[in-house]
Design goal:
With 289 residues, this protein is mostly beta strands. The protein contains one helix and 19 strands.
Length: 289
C-alpha cells in the first residue's frame, strides 16, 4: 500500500487547528451509484471515491478517483503545501485484493494565506487513482482513510473514510476521470525544445546565499507559475519567485537553497519542478548542479 507523508508546517498565524470532522450527508441532488461511494464531509468540504469502467482489455491497473468538493472561499493543500499547511495523507489499509495504489495529482496553484504562499486548490478537483490488484481475477474493494485540511481564515483538519468496489460495472464517471487525467502535469525532461518547457536549472552561488535558477520557455504573454520539490518529503524548499528574464520567450525563476534536511547535499539532488501555465502543466525531475 502507498501512504502519503503527513507533515505539519505552520506559523502562528498560518494555521489554527480545530476539531476533527466526521461523516456528513450525501450532497443534495446526487443520485446513488454503484460506481461512487457516499459523500463524506460537512458544509466546508466533502469527499467520495469514484471508479471508472473496466478497460476493454480487462487489464490492470484499475482506474479510480478521490473527488473533493470545497466550499467557496476555502482551500486545501497539494502534496507539497509550500510555506505552511498540511499535505493530504492517504491510508488504503483494509482494502481487499489491492497490492498498490498510485495517487496522481492535478496541477496546483499558488494561494496567499495569512501573509504566506501555500500550494493547493481553491475549487473542486479529483485525485486520480491507479489501483494494482493482487489477483486480476478477483474483485477489488478499495478502502480509503484520508486526512487533509481545509482553510479559510482558520485551518480545520478533516478525517474522511470511504469504501468502494472498483471496475465491477459500467461507470457514468469515465468522462469526469478523463478530465481529471488531462489536468495532471505531463512528464517532461530538462532541456526539451518545446514552446512550453523547462530549459535549464543551475545552481548560483552568490555569498552569503546560494540559490537555484530555472529557465522556462513559454509562449508569448503566458503567465507561468513554478513549484519545486526536493528528493524526499523531508525537504522544504521555498516557492520559486520570478526574476529578470534572460531573453524573450523565457521566464526565469529563482529559489534559495534552504530547507534541506540535516546532512543533505544540494549538488546532485533530484529536484522536481512543476510549471503551470493556464490549463497546461508540465513536470520535470532533474539533478541540480
Amino acid at each position: 500500500m502507498i501512504n502519503g507523508v503527513y507533515r505539519l508546517r505552520r506559523s502562528a498565524a498560518a494555521c489554527a487547528l480545530a476539531v476533527w470532522l466526521s461523516a456528513g450527508p450525501t450532497q443534495a441532488g446526487e443520485s446513488a451509484s454503484p460506481a461512487a461511494s457516499s459523500w463524506v464531509g460537512d458544509g466546508r468540504s466533502a469527499v467520495r471515491l469514484l471508479t471508472g469502467s473496466p478497460n476493454s482489455a480487462g487489464t490492470a491497473p484499475l482506474l479510480g478517483g478521490i473527488e473533493i468538493r470545497l466550499k467557496s472561499g476555502w482551500h486545501t493543500y497539494w502534496r507539497y503545501p509550500g510555506d505552511a499547511g498540511v499535505p493530504p495523507r492517504f491510508d488504503f489499509t483494509g482494502s481487499d485484493n489491492v497490492d498498490a495504489v498510485t495517487v496522481e495529482w492535478p496541477a496546483p496553484q499558488r494561494i496567499p494565506e495569512q501573509g504566506l504562499d501555500v500550494i493547493g486548490y481553491t475549487q473542486d478537483f479529483i485525485l486520480l487513482l491507479l489501483v494494482q490488484p493482487h489477483n486480476t481475477d478477483r474483485p477489488v474493494k478499495l478502502h480509503l482513510k484520508l486526512e487533509y485540511a481545509v482553510c479559510e481564515r482558520l485551518c480545520v483538519p478533516v478525517e474522511a473514510s470511504a469504501e468502494l468496489a472498483l471496475a465491477g460495472v459500467h461507470s457514468p464517471y469515465d468522462a469526469l476521470l478523463a478530465e481529471a487525467r488531462s489536468r495532471i502535469p505531463q512528464k517532461r525532461t530538462l532541456g526539451e525544445a518545446s514552446t512550453f518547457a523547462v530549459r535549464a536549472m543551475q545552481r548560483e552561488n552568490s555569498p552569503p546565499r546560494s540559490r537555484a535558477i530555472v529557465d522556462i520557455a513559454t509562449p508569448p504573454d503566458t503567465r507561468v507559475d513554478l513549484f519545486a520539490e526536493g528528493p524526499t518529503a523531508e525537504w522544504a524548499l521555498p516557492i520559486p519567485v520570478p526574476v529578470a528574464a534572460p531573453a524573450p520567450g523565457v521566464q526565469r525563476f529563482a529559489f534559495d537553497l534552504v530547507g534541506a534536511p540535516p546532512g543533505a547535499k544540494y549538488d546532485g539532488a533530484l529536484i522536481t519542478l512543476t510549471a503551470v501555465a493556464g490549463d497546461a502543466a508540465i513536470e520535470v525531475t532533474a539533478a541540480l548542479h
